[in-house]
Amino acid sequence: MSGHSKWHSIKHKKAKEDTKRGNLFGKLSKSIIIAIKDGNGVSDPKDNIALANAIAKAKENNMPQANIDRAIKRGTGEIEGETYESIVYEGYGPGGIAIIVEALTENRNRTASDLRNTFSKYGGNLGENGSVNWQFERKGLIIIEKDTVKDEEEFILEAIDHGVEDIEKVGDFFEVKVEPIDFIKVKESFETAGISIKNSETGLTPMSKIKISVEEGKKALKLINALEDHADIQHVSYNIDLSDEIFNAGNER
Prior knowledge:
Elements: H1 3-18, H2 21-38, H3 49-60, H4 65-76, E1 85-92, E2 98-105, H5 108-121, E3 125-126, E4 136-145, H6 152-161, E5 164-170, E6 173-178, H7 183-192, E7 197-206, H8 214-229, E8 233-238, H9 244-250
Antiparallel strand pairs: 1-2, 1-3, 2-8, 4-6, 4-7, 5-6
Helix pairs in contact: 2-3, 2-4, 8-9
């Protein structure tokens, strides 16, 4: 995992989401709802790891408890609402990068049409199921501020004891990679130890990344940004080796 590029993408994504909190809360609510439905109606996060992760993400983004409770009730059917289904789309972007889009939608035809148009508009194309998913794996990623870690060696050893798979230093941060089933446990162990978590999420991460030109990278980020802005899209995963040069070029006004 290239922590440098991953941290850049998280910062960029979070900054975009923070400016669109209504849209973000809607996505977080959908995530809670589908976690309950896919978990056979189990609404106790202790017995539903996907729900626990969804609630943790909602709280991390300061989603009001009332919104979380309402989403849980919609998931259990206590409150009526739209029926969402989870769909994964696979495709390619500029430079031949692989892209996986995870969506929650009440209208799959509309969402598929929107995504097909978005890929086409920004120089990409949708692929068949299975065309790129073999290049990704699902992991939990926790970003920690180095200043809150008093003893680096002790921190790394304790993290490994708690089930951490990999730790990488990136600038002023540690990037911690874990298996999704260990995500909440590891995150809570850090919080209990007084370690500041800058950001955390579970999702698909590329097993390797590809280098593309700055111009291709700029086009690719425009595609990724457009996909992330769509109300039905929960996660966009991609395998760009996202250098500072590409990142900065992709955010030029």
